[in-house]
Design brief:
The chain is α/β, with parallel strands linked by helices. It contains six helices and five strands, in the order αβαβαααβββα. The protein has one domain: CinA-like (Maf protein, Alpha-Beta Complex). It has helices at 7-23, 38-44, 62-69, 73-79, 84-96, 146-168; strands spanning 28-32, 53-58, 102-108, 123-130, 134-141. It has a five-stranded mixed beta sheet, with helices on both faces.
Length: 169
């Protein structure tokens, strides 16, 4: 049985997102932590993606988040790398450092270790940077193994962007 999180479902979601970005003449950049570049890979798997995909950054360490995306060290220290505040800063940072109109960011705990009572395995924070410096964030708690959590993260990030591009333009 196929789900929205299988390879075909993720590819279809990336294609739908691409079509919406192209229809509005918009570009995307990604800032990924727990997904390790999976969102960017799905985007660049599509022929002609350079029309709507500008760049992707994998910022797995706190230092990378600071150096490559401009996330303030104080924000990471105060809220933790897996927080909506850091996700917002990542999304804003990738747009500020690119020619993109939209930015997606993800930071989370995919497991199997690394969780805590406050932030268990499966905790993922999302950021979407929209035109006009609008930032939106969400926090989700996914169940499953590492692969399942990462697949759900990729799907949620792309679906969130698709919904926002459809509404915002």
């Amino acid at each position: 049985m196929k789900t929205a999180y299988d390879d075909d479902g993720l590819a279809m979601l990336a294609a739908a997102t691409a079509a919406e970005l192209k229809a509005h003449g918009r570009m995307l950049a990604t800032a990924e932590s727990c997904t390790g570049g999976w969102i960017a890979k799905l985007c660049t798997d599509l022929a002609g993606s350079s029309v709507w995909f500008e760049r992707g950054v994998v910022s797995y360490s706190n230092e990378a988040k600071q150096e490559l995306l401009g996330v303030p060290a104080a924000t990471i220290y105060r809220f933790g790398a897996v927080s909506e505040e850091v996700a917002a800063a990542m999304a804003a940072g990738i747009v500020a450092r690119s020619r993109a109109d939209y930015g997606i960011s993800v930071s989370g705990i995919a497991g199997p270790g690394g969780g805590s009572p406050d932030k268990p395995v499966g905790t993922v924070c999302f950021g979407w940077a929209l035109p006009d410096e609008v930032l939106e964030t969400e926090l989700h708690l996914f169940a499953g193994d590492r692969d399942g959590i990462r697949r759900a993260t990729v799907a949620t990030a792309l679906q969130g962007l698709l919904t926002r591009v459809s509404a915002y333009g």
